[in-house]
Design goal:
210 residues, 5 helices, 20% helix
């Protein structure tokens, strides 16, 4: 099992895949703070798939344990690919229901840095668990093809709720769920709490205090 679930540092081969994509020229996160994870996961048909994800060193062990537990529980995850396979375009990655972590970027339509930029947030099955917010008085859904999954009373595959094993295992490891937020809903999103992230990176602005 160890060969299928492991953590490694970002070597030259891996860095060549993320350079100028998720690891952009203006990235202020030291490469030594990132880790590459190889995992197994199962899709909705129960097929075993190989996955890879890059995250912060401070959550690497927890994240590896989470994915191993999800695999053992036969929890369905459609894809776990580096966001760089989508040229680090978060919208394209989400539309393809790809689960991911590190991508140096700002929060959508804001000037605050995303915890994805520090590799401290993970999105799981994002197509079926969209980010929903209000922009100029209108509902905005990301990814754009996720309108069918806004109504959380409906039954559909890959849906994350507070009764879901995915939610429970992330919560056990100290992550907060975007589906619990009141200012918006980010059902795909699990992140380290602000107080922990700000201790790790005190110079970074993770929230809007304006």
């Amino acid at each position: 099992m160890e060969k299928n679930f492991f953590i490694s540092e970002i070597d030259e081969k891996i860095f060549s895949r993320i350079k100028d994509k998720s690891y952009k020229k203006n990235c202020t996160l030291p490469i030594k703070d990132l880790r590459y994870l190889k995992v197994l996961h199962k899709n909705l048909n129960g097929e075993i798939c190989e996955g890879e994800i890059i995250c912060n060193v401070h959550i690497a062990e927890n994240l590896l344990d989470i994915f191993q537990k999800l695999y053992e529980k036969n929890y369905p995850i459609e894809k776990i690919r580096l966001v760089d396979e989508y040229n680090a375009d978060d919208e394209l990655s989400m539309r393809d229901n790809n689960s991911s972590c590190f991508n140096f970027r700002l929060v959508a339509r804001k000037k605050i840095i995303s915890k994805h930029a520090a590799g401290l947030a993970v999105d799981i099955n994002p197509l079926y668990n969209p980010y929903i917010t209000t922009v100029d008085g209108r509902q905005n859904v990301e990814p754009a093809n996720a309108e069918s999954y806004v109504d959380r009373e409906k039954n559909f595959p890959y849906k994350i709720t507070e009764q879901d094993f995915c939610y429970k295992i992330f919560a056990e490891h100290g992550f907060e769920w975007g589906g619990s937020w009141t200012h918006c809903k980010d059902y795909q999103h699990f992140e380290l709490p602000d107080k922990i992230a700000e201790k790790l990176y005190p110079a970074w602005r993770f929230r809007d205090n304006a």
